[in-house]
Amino acid sequence: MPWKLFRKDLSDVCLRGRFPRLSHLRLGDEDSTIAFTYSFQPSMHIEFMVSILDAAEYPDNHSYFAFAVTDNIPPAVSAILETVQCKFNGCSLETFLEGFCNYLDQAALGREPRASSPIDDDFDAISDGEDMDWDEYPDAPQMDHSVDMKQLRTDLRAAKSAGFKVGYLGDLEGSFIVSISCRIASLGISQDAMQMWDVCPTHFIVLLLYYPRGYRRLDHIVSQSQTAPSPVRMYVGFCDRYKPTAVSIPETHQEFSGLGVSNSTLKSALKSSFITDPLETLLNDRFLSIVQDRLRHGFSWTGAEIFYNDAQGKKLDTKDSKLPKYFVPEEWAKFTPGFVKADDLSQHTAHQLSLPLIAMQYTLRRFVKCTEFCLNCHCKIDTGFEALKPYVCSSPLCLYQYMQLGMGPKLEWEIVTQPYVVDMLVSFAYARAAQGQLNDLPSGLGIKVASTGSTLPSWTARLDAAKMTLLAQKPHNLKVGEWILIKLANASDLPSTVSSLCSTVLQVHDQSLVEISQPISVGYWTDTQDSLSDGLDVQVVPFRVDFDSLAGDLKQKAVMLLLDTLPDVFSMKDFIESSTPEHKALASWHGKICPSALYVLRWILASNRSCIVHDDNPEHQVTGMHNYMQFRLAQGSPDKEARFVQELNNSSNMEFPTLFAWHGSPVYNWHSILRQGLNFAQQLNGRAYGDGVYMAKDLEVSRIYCSRGSMSGAKWSRSKLDITSAISLNEVVNSPTKFKLTKPYYVVTQLDWIQSRYLFISGGGIKAQEENKNKPSKVFKQHPDWTARGPGNEPVSIPISALGTRQSQSHKNKDDSNGQATGHRQKKRKASTKGVCGPSESSSTTDPNDDTEIEDLRLLDSDSDGDVTGKSRRVDASKSSHNLRRGSKTDFQPGTLQAHSFKLLGPPSYATTTATKSLQRHLKATLRIQDREPLHEIGWYVDPTLINNVYQWIVEFHSFDPSLPLAQDLKQKGLTSVVMEMRFPPQFPMSPPFIRVVRPRFMSFQQRGGGHVTAGGAMCMELLTSSGWLPTSSIDSVFLQVRMALCSTEPWPARIERDGDYPFSEAVSAYRRACQAHGWKVPDDFNRIEAA
């Protein structure tokens, strides 16, 4: 079978290392597409999408169509895409990737094109197994890992001063990552928007800047040639903590997996979303060019983005750069926090600017304004309706790539989490198409449909329903995997009004016999399979007509036909939940999901820009509406909610700032209303009282409009809801004197005064719920004269949750004796964006995830390049031991040990690159654990201010069990810890460290003393010899075992003999004697420690 062979070939080519410059090779959203990343220089990547045309003919008669998803690809690569693809027709996937990569290497890396023989000659011109030799190319990047520590520190301090959380991941002497973050709750984004964007207010939005070749200043980066590889790559995501683990970034996983950063904690993983993925593309493809334009010409962010777009395809001269449109000021919502609007780039020159800070400011700007820009081309969207969910512009190419690349919330996720919402949206679209008013059609998606009115061939055949076969009466060219429409042989042209079936071709036995899948009935097919068992003459029409080529009325009918081929939403939900992770995509449900129908389904959900949530919790439901299914509804951009609150603040009605009113409309109108909001741009039902949005306080008045207009009896046949009517409940600014009319309707012309809060639907598939006599615990107090009334003219109780973003603020209002929110217009009810103090603040409670790690504090507070490893005394004990303030139970006081109070040998003079880097990583990991865990639980302490060399550590062991003789001896002598020295050999981690007691002196074994302490103070443990050491051991695990040895009471407990220190020479001699006595091997490089 072609599909099985293709999937097998794809699995084979995905093996690691098969194509060194390809990564993330995977199946696309459709079975006939693949995607991969081509990396031709460090930090230079191109994303490709490849469609396999005529995939049913694989591997003989198919072809490939590849295009680059990444912007601004080299011209030579563009030329390759235009010229070489036809050379791979009929080639296997492996052959295509091998040849395609070779051509890309020639274009991207500057190789001279080599004479090539035809593809059929098995690529004789391409050397088998040839690897790239970077030395062959003079422009190959030289890996310089030097870091300007002073500049890095200055730039991070600038970001910290702006209120952001900053940190780093990795080795500052090599490849590392700078992290900048802030709480999402501090950005002033509405609650509805956060729900729609699938983000959590307590999480951090994190910008990561990956420097594979060391840190570079902004002015150095923007002044380099545009053809040079970028020295920085950026990532955006969300995290529970202020910085994630480095290994949670796919492209850096291998490089950072050995940094001692734990990747076992999902809490510290960087999580992406349908918003962050396009934002990453924008940052890596355009951001630095936009910064260059701003620095060169003095543009605003908006002007620089317009200039960048205008410059695509033509060269702009100096005169063009003076146009006013490039200097337009930034437009912000009134309540946008100041740090989000901050623009440091407009205030300084390049050498004074912090790239991390500028990048974070731009990231936040695009994030909070994401609904204003196309997710694909990143251009400003000019539309009359302000969306709550990011989308794409009206360009057919953008819509095509939006669907092809799976931007936006995943279809499967929406089906699983909100199946009733999906059912409702599809039903609304179907009703709109049945009415012939579906004007915003899914054009430009490559949708193929069946139409007998076209010039494409169709065949007459006999259908055997028992065997699921078609016997064609003349030769055909149907292909395996192709979808077909089956109609009565003499039926009319319109499949939505005649008996029709849809099926897919499973097997073609010859030019007459075709095996098909179980047919799916569409339209008004009434015959059963049993009635067809004796055979029936039918007309077979393949899905080969381009949807875009159809006339307007046929497009509406084609949409209906395609939606009728879909299973019901709950069947799709069951399929997704029961499938293995690699087969959860609906595209893998062959024979049940038509690819064209899947495109239409994805378009319906993606183009809906309202936030709709089905909530059956009585606490969030309007009372008296038990015969309806309730959906909480929010529309408009995040800024629209802020403008609505501003109108409330301007209202003269202090006690009852808003009222609630109903709006009814026929089912077929709601597809449009959910995309454009309530407006009066089109006249649908007549306007006896002039322009405006018509609403009523009585449900029965608005319900009349729900049944107006004919639906021709057309409903989506797969709907479980079987919707017959829909009506919304809207919150309106309570200024009736300014309404155009108040009786018998409210006629409101000010759209900013209206916010939709609930959508109610009724239908044959909706069972009446048992009426809940109890009101929600928190309800909105309505004006007595303007109280919304539901069925039976009874007043309805509206929960506080209907207020959306103002819900949390309303809870702060005092309740009256009835337990109702007063509804008073108070300052506390202002939008959540008001009063935000800074990007790091989110609540009044302290969150341990806000705590800055010790290594980040040390970098920020140190004054010299060598300070990062621990010299800085600015990081005092109170900072590094904040866990004491979290309830630590110990008398040990960290940071009280003074270096002048004991005498040590000088630091070791030896050093190796391997050992130094390993020790730096171990030190960071150890200090991180120490800073995170309560001191009394871990029982050891490493004072970073006492470490002048990573080969020599001072460790204090403390907080012993009070019942131990050792703890009692320490207390009697006024001591709180055992001080030890830890020396590392030049071959670490292959050789173990040497650990000895500095003070106090212990009773020896001959004196019936224990604790595994030798007479000279060295620790007597096989772990610390070549016989027992494991290079994979972590330092904290070594500390644990040393502490356990000190606490051991067999054969005798450790006891203190007297005050005083052990000389280093005594410990060395005692260590050698212990190894000899136990038969342990002394490390080969121990003599280097001894001679240090």
From TrEMBL:
<keyword id="KW-0328">Glycosyltransferase</keyword>
<keyword id="KW-0808">Transferase</keyword>
<dbReference type="InterPro" id="IPR012317">
    <property type="entry name" value="Poly(ADP-ribose)pol_cat_dom"/>
</dbReference>
<feature type="compositionally biased region" description="Basic and acidic residues">
    <location>
        <begin position="868"/>
        <end position="879"/>
    </location>
</feature>
<feature type="domain" description="UBC core">
    <location>
        <begin position="918"/>
        <end position="1092"/>
    </location>
</feature>
<protein>
    <recommendedName>
        <fullName>UBC core domain-containing protein</fullName>
    </recommendedName>
</protein>
<keyword id="KW-0520">NAD</keyword>
<feature type="region of interest" description="Disordered">
    <location>
        <begin position="770"/>
        <end position="893"/>
    </location>
</feature>
<dbReference type="GO" id="GO:0016779">
    <property type="term" value="F:nucleotidyltransferase activity"/>
</dbReference>
<dbReference type="InterPro" id="IPR016135">
    <property type="entry name" value="UBQ-conjugating_enzyme/RWD"/>
</dbReference>
<keyword id="KW-0548">Nucleotidyltransferase</keyword>
<dbReference type="InterPro" id="IPR051838">
    <property type="entry name" value="ARTD_PARP"/>
</dbReference>
<dbReference type="InterPro" id="IPR000608">
    <property type="entry name" value="UBC"/>
</dbReference>
<dbReference type="Pfam" id="PF00644">
    <property type="entry name" value="PARP"/>
</dbReference>
<dbReference type="GO" id="GO:0003950">
    <property type="term" value="F:NAD+ poly-ADP-ribosyltransferase activity"/>
</dbReference>
